[in-house]
Design a protein that fits this description.
heterodimer; A: 606 residues; alpha/beta; five-stranded parallel β-sheet; four-stranded mixed β-sheet; 25 helices; 11 strands; elongated; B: 311 residues; seven-stranded mixed β-sheet; six-stranded mixed β-sheet; 29% helix; 27% strand
């Protein structure tokens, strides 16, 4: 799949810009001059968003809204790249001996170099043909002023650039970075010096261009990879930064070694940062972005479908979650699946007899019909699809090897959760094969359910293969199956409730991380969030940043990418405490000492 | 600097022999089949997983005159250096290493210890590898460690903005390479798939590594497991061709011969810019016994005294 880029980490901003779809309203929020946290799991597009704030990204972007967005930006952005491989290299610096704090010093130099690079970009733009919508981000600086800038900064930082240009300054900083690796005795800067050093560089630059108030944004990518001291400094010490400095941080939802200092004088997420969440608790919020990215992916294979719903065929033999009820909103016909399920599921037969929905459908009022029929229809579809029978308290499964229940529009798109990597993993191969099929056989009008079923499996595999390699230490001999094993326990418990237990109209598919679980479980939930296997469901009064104050007492659901694995609905169900869920799966060792066996199910249904 | 390498079976004895003292039946196989002469004999232990055939292997290697040293963990490379120092610093030294039952971390520690101990010596080091008989891949143990194989092998780049390139050896653990790719998020990956093995192994390997091309930009290479010299040539050619454009890491899944080849190649060439990562179940791994199956695969490297010794 060379035609599609799945990883923005090292793709130049100018290349990213060629296919960038701005997720609304996230991108708009990022353009403000507020300090911003971009919080999202792997593959959610954090790096792409940051890179699109840089001049190189904006210059290469020809989206219809590009000029409108660019005109709103009131800062020049310096992108500070990082990835896990480089993070581990920094870790090794300190562990291999010599002076302490070498990794801090390396991060310091790396940040400074990124700022100088952004300044050089602004000057280059000023010296070249500049589009009108980017003019305010360009800088007019003479070569003499540039030489003066380099002289002042290099003297202050004891650097000896070989060229008296900003490029020379960047190369001198790169040399310093190498020296930190090669020579344990090299002079080091501490992270506490970063604000004053940035202030010096900005003051010098702004002074020389006679624009004292010009703002500069430092965009830290993958902050969780930075040394702990740097993380704590950036997260808690933001008030010590110059007011001409804007900080944008891309972080995973959970960091086990740093967070916001809760003291009254420290920065508080709610006051000092605005937060952009790149996961979607409500699937409708991801719809517009997912559609545009899928259409864009199809277009790259020469496909321009009039209607996405028509492209994704529904399987002929079964109804899917995605197909609208044939009975319609005003119809009073009991769906056929009700009768089919009642014949093989004693518990469901008891339900419809109790509710008497089949006796007088025409006479039922709207509220009763919504409660007794429409609300339970997805559960009925699920049980009818997967169960061969339910007698007494025992269920027997039907043999189901495909994921056809999850195919068809919009289910096929909902499993991606609006995650760009998942969308491309789903849509890329589908579009490529569909392009070939339509070329060879012009009568082909839609993507088969079977091909979609493979795509559902591919998206699931993308996530489970990641979960398989994320270390998690849950302790105890019987609970060592890693993060995938932990997520499996949660998923199987929900599955048991909806398929192995007697029929219930109340579907439960989310949990609250309560106080009765061990710290290891809290950490595992955090890692599940970072991987995208779990999705945070903010409370209506919780705010975007509620997760950053701690994972406890927050509500979560499983990613819909795992729905087929655990045979669950693509619907947010009621919730239960995680301690109770783990007790049901007989995982007592994962609970804390204070765990109560009598915690009540707090199930709500929404 | 590596002067030459060969796949031929060695002739004559060695100054030093290093074997793994683990839980596999395979631990004894090469030594008992080949029976090389050696003046200093070291058995590298794991420090855990002392079940299976460990006790029998311990008795066997003790009777053969081996001294045991822990070969994994933070102190292992230093402990191995101490053990090797018994041999002094001769102008030339020949070393035999049976990697068949070693972990990748143990192989790394032994190579680093040899490089440190005999930095100013001409070293001839011979690896012996006896592939195991094919067994259906069991459910892989959960990953407990995902990091550079040792700190020294973290690699280095002063330009983290450069794209990350990852060279993978492929193995039979389902989804492991794809999962590792998602953790590391390389911009490009080069996959080395072994051939020349039991056909069942090849099929298992194919199944374990499906979907990678659907998601990542990768280039596949096949390598003949019976020709480590060719593998080393391919690997070094690849590094030389992409080293300027990418920051490089290598993830040696698959046969231990791949791990041996890339680790010896990097360490003895002094390439400290390339990181080597491990994704391992550590002590949570199941002690699944492995029996060896002939023939023994050999790889001998001749290394000139290094101009700069590691710190």
């Amino acid at each position: 799949m060379r035609e599609i880029e799945y990883n923005a980490r090292s793709i130049p901003p100018s290349e990213i810009a060629k296919s960038f779809i701005p997720p609304r309203p996230h991108f708009g929020k990022l353009l403000s001059s507020n300090h911003t946290l971009i919080v999202g799991p792997r593959g959610s597009g954090k790096t792409t968003l940051l890179k699109m704030l840089t001049l190189r990204g904006l210059r290469g972007w020809d989206h219809p809204s590009a000029a409108e967005y660019a005109e709103q930006i009131r800062f020049n952005a310096a992108f500070v790249p990082a990835d896990i491989a480089w993070g581990r290299q920094l870790d090794a610096l300190d562990q291999l001996g010599g002076k302490a704090h070498r990794k801090e010093a390396a991060f310091f130099v790396h940040t400074l170099r990124a700022l100088v690079y952004a300044m050089r970009d602004a000057v280059d733009l000023g010296r070249s043909e500049c589009p009108a919508h980017l003019h305010h981000l360009s800088v007019a600086m003479t070569p003499e002023e540039e030489t003066e800038f380099v002289r002042i900064v290099s003297t202050s930082l004891a650097l000896t650039p070989l060229l008296d240009s900003m490029l020379g300054l960047e190369l001198a900083l790169e040399d310093r970075l190498n020296a930190i690796n090669e020579n344990p005795r090299v002079a080091l800067w501490s992270i506490e010096q970063l604000p004053s050093t940035l202030r010096l560089v900005i003051s010098t630059f702004n002074g020389l261009i006679r624009d004292d108030e010009r703002r500069w944004a430092i965009l830290f990518d993958e902050l969780e990879i930075a040394p702990k001291s740097v993380k704590q400094f950036v997260l808690s010490g933001i008030r010590s930064f110059d007011e001409r400095l804007v900080i944008k941080l891309a972080i995973a939802p959970y960091m086990d070694d740093a967070g916001f200092d809760a003291s009254p004088t420290s920065a508080h997420a709610y006051h000092d940062f605005s937060t952009v969440q790149l996961s979607y608790a409500n699937k409708e919020d991801a719809k517009a972005f997912t559609h545009e990215l899928v259409r864009n992916t199809f277009a790259r294979f020469g496909l321009f479908p009039d209607s996405l719903p028509n492209v994704f065929a529904s399987p002929s033999e079964t109804r899917t979650f995605g197909r609208r009820s044939p009975s319609g909103r005003s119809s009073r016909t009991v769906p056929a699946e009700f009768e089919a399920l009642s014949k093989k599921d004693e518990s469901f037969r008891a339900y419809i007899e109790d509710r008497k929905v089949h006796l007088n459908p025409k006479g039922a009022d709207e509220q009763t019909w919504a409660r007794d029929v429409r609300k339970v229809l997805p559960i009925v579809l699920l049980r009818d699809y997967y169960l061969k029978s339910f007698r007494g308290k025992a269920s027997i499964d039907r043999s189901r090897k495909s994921n056809s229940l999850y195919t068809g529009y919009p289910s096929i798109l909902e499993i991606t959760e609006g995650n760009p990597r998942a969308i491309l993993t789903l849509a890329g191969p589908l579009a490529q094969n569909f392009a070939t099929e339509t070329k060879n056989s012009p009568t082909v009008r839609s993507i088969s359910s079977s091909a979609q079923s493979d795509a559902v499996a591919r998206v699931e595999f993308l996530l489970t293969s990641l979960l398989r390699v994320i270390p998690v230490d849950l302790g105890g001999p019987q609970v060592v199956n890693g993060l995938l094993g932990f997520i499996d326990k949660i998923g199987r418990s929900f599955e048991d409730r909806v398929l192995k237990a007697p029929f219930s109209p109340d579907y439960v598919s989310s949990f609250v991380l309560d106080e009765n679980v061990s710290p290891a479980v809290v950490s595992a939930v955090g890692r599940g969030l970072n991987a995208g296997a779990l999705v945070h469901i903010p409370y209506s009064d919780g705010g975007q940043d509620s997760l950053l104050r701690g994972l406890k007492n927050q509500r979560y659901r499983l990613s819909y990418a795992l729905a087929a694995r655990y045979r669950l609905l693509l619907t947010l169900g009621g919730h239960i405490t995680l301690s109770k869920l783990l007790l049901e799966s007989q995982d007592g060792p994962l609970l804390s000492q204070q765990s109560s066996l009598f915690d009540q199910d707090t199930g709500s249904h929404d | 600097m590596i002067e030459y390498d060969t796949d031929k079976a060695p002739e004559g004895g060695f100054d030093i022999a290093i074997v793994a003292l683990g839980y596999e039946t395979r631990c004894q196989w090469v030594w008992s089949e080949f029976r090389p002469e050696a003046k200093l004999k070291i058995a590298a232990q794991f420090g855990f997983l002392t079940q299976g055939k460990h006790s029998a292997n311990d008795d066997y290697f003790s009777s053969e005159g081996f001294t045991s040293v822990v070969g994994v963990g933070d102190r292992a490379a230093n402990d191995l250096v101490e053990a090797l120092r018994q041999f002094g610093t001769p102008p030339e030294v020949s070393i035999f290493v049976d990697i068949s039952s070693m972990s990748r971390e143990m192989i790394a520690n032994i190579i680093l210890a040899v490089n440190n101990s005999f930095c100013s010596s001409a070293v001839r080091i011979t690896a012996a590898y006896a592939p195991s008989k094919f067994v259906e891949a069991a459910e892989s143990a959960p990953i407990r460690i995902a990091r550079p194989i040792t700190r020294v092998l973290s690699g280095w780049s002063s330009m983290p903005e450069k794209p990350l390139g990852a060279v993978f050896g492929l193995g039979c653990e389902g989804g492991l390479a794809l999962g590792a790719m998602q953790v590391l998020e390389p911009d490009n990956a080069w996959l080395f798939a072994p051939v020349g093995l039991d056909d069942r192994f090849i099929e298992s390997l194919r199944n374990a590594n499906e979907h990678i091309e659907d998601i990542f930009d990768v280039t596949r290479f096949a390598y003949d497991i019976q020709s480590p010299t060719t593998l080393r040539a391919k690997y070094e050619s690849l590094l030389n061709s992409i080293g300027d454009e990418f920051r490089l890491i290598t993830i040696p899944f698959g046969p231990k011969l791949f791990a041996w080849t890339i680790l010896s190649s990097l360490v003895f060439s002094g390439r400290d810019d390339v990181g080597v990562w491990t994704f391992s179940s550590a002590e949570q791994g199941h002690a699944a016994d492995r029996e060896a199956e002939g023939p023994i695969i050999w790889h001998t490297l001749s290394i000139a005294p290094r101009e700069v010794c590691p710190i």
